[in-house]
Amino acid sequence: MSEIKKSWYKEMAVYQIWPRSFCDGNGDGIGDLKGVLSKLDYIKSLGVDAIWFSPIYKSPQKDYGYDIADYRDIAPEYGTMEDFKAVLDGAHERGLRVIMDLVVNHTSDQHEWFKESLKGKDNPYHDYYFWRKGKGKNPPNNWLATFPGPAWEYNKDLDEYYLHLFAPEQPDLNMDNPAVRNEVKDIMRFWLDMGVDGFREDVITFISKKEGLPNGIPLPFATGIEHYKFGPHLLEYLTEFNDEVLSKYDCMTVGEAPMMTPDLALKFIDEREGKNQTLKMMFNFQHMEADCMFTSFIVKKFSLRKLKAAMSSWQNKLYGKGWNALYLENHDQPRVISRYGSEKYRERSGKMLATMYICQSGTPFIYQGQEIGMTNIRLPELSMYKDVATYKSYNICKKLGFSHENIMKRCMHASRDNARTPVQWTSGKNAGFTTAEEPWFYINPNYTEVNVEDSEKDPDSLLNYYRKLLKFRKENEIVIYGKYKEHYRDSEKLFVYERSYEGKRMLVICSFSDTIERFKAPKGFDLAKGRVVLANYDYANPGFDSFNLKPYEAKVFMFD
Ligand code: GLC
Ligand code: CA
Fold first, then answer.
1. pTM (2 d.p.)
2. How many angstroms does the Cα of residue 434 sit away from the middle of ligand 2?
3. Cβ(12)–Cβ(95) below 8 Å
4. What is residue 428's three-state secondary structure?
């Protein structure tokens, strides 16, 4: 059996901030860095070890920061470079690392490079992007963007098209151009030299496109994806970034990797001697497709078996070879209690879900508001939405013939805006997010019940459970380094697994059912001999190997 290597990035837990909705420090209705500074003690109190910032750079905000106009400057509505340095220092003083979002598959169309590239073929920046002649009256190929719509935008002056895999305001960078790769390395050095501790690398697995940009197999959206989802030079470019920059710093990286499988991931994240570990971890999407297909707009009934199969395969295949990034929420995913849990059993199911993923092997990521159990807002009118991807998805559904009512249901369920409402700090005006009359975006009306202030006062709150859970993880190496083994994989109601490490064993039992379920200990476990170390109802040991689980119950037994 392979020895498991220890490392700080494996032991940490990360808190993700989506800055616009985190906390408004200057009363203009928009979250900002002053707001973050004022909440550093709160973040530290959760028991996390790092903050990942969704993009805070200068940006026209067409995709809320994932369209960068200047990689070395802060968006004025979020503050100044001084403000950022104050946050960085404040975080470091508290023992919190800071991870930046590195978005280099594309820039904003307002980036200087793109503006230069518009000046024509002879401009050196022209080749920073994918400019191509059309085929007659048609675009250069049949690719469609992953935000539904065409992947090519025509420019009349140049009589050429440029490629964009996301919104038209997000032109794709041509990573095959060595000058572009040098820019990326310089950006990495700029932030690492300033003292940041690593990067979350946005759709990094899309950066290499197949030579010649051939037509793709027709799909309703993302046609052509087989030619760039893990393109021909991806490993080579990631190796170059790692060899020349990242490996020279004590930093961590996590690459966002749509459609990634564990076998393929190991090509990039294998940490064993003689292997090429270009990234420390990857965010995969397989476990976020237990209630949908590709996008949460294509809704399916939640399948616990699908969720378990996805998570267990990553757990099993990476053990001793690579490292998992664990998450259930981020700024792209609707709130998880509204998807895999139950709003009726909001805190119970929130605790169960937290137990289910944080007790697995990997580095857990927690998205702002997840720790208090924020839920989907379900905006009823299309005009209430802000997210560009939601509008694009609306249009494609319309084209496919769905009725307005049907599509609005999908938006309420699937829009990324569900996760982007302001954090609910108090039960007071604007949920304590801003002192302005109007926040930049709607606040979920449940803030009177769901907020940090009230959760702080209740020792039994979800918030305090997250603290307990993260402390438990930190104090028990088995949670971090233990081997994973699943039980009852066919059950559609129970997610049961064990962890084992240096002679100890731990049994994690999670019910995804809203009624009572009978549980029987797997062979080889004598529950009476175990200690209940985590529970979302009561900590009593039932004393028998068979007992009833209450709705969304979670119970963790330790056998030392
Ligand atoms: C990633 C980001 C998402 C963004 C997209 C394009 O998936 O997480 O928010 O819209 O990339 O940059
Ligand atoms: Ca502000």
1. 0.98
2. 8
3. no
4. coil
